[in-house]
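From the pipeline queue, job 12 of 40. The input is one protein chain; the requested action is below.

Action: predict structure.
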Amino acid sequence: MENHIPNADRKSETYTGHQVVDPDGHTLGEVSDVIYDDSTNEPAWMVVNPGLVRAEHYAPIEGSYTTDDGRVVVPFDKNWLKKAPKASGSHVLDDATVKELEDHYETPAH
């Protein structure tokens, strides 16, 4: 079984704390955590915090990019993110959740 566990020792600061926007520049939230794929040691998922009283959701790192001003641009809009599986409190992904995320975003994130 592959482990998908947040790891504070890795360089998650590349994403953590940065604003997440859609391709049109609309704010979706802020990256609160990065989850690495232990088999590749690469970032696979980000946890996007949309703000007060709204649930955090997972979003793939694949397909995103960072602008010169530090914003993380993802290739989907707010509604697509809101329909994604919600992030667990521990931000630990099990295989079933990874499969659900890959199906939702139509991409393998590792």
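Job complete. Residues 1-10 have pLDDT under 50 and may be disordered.
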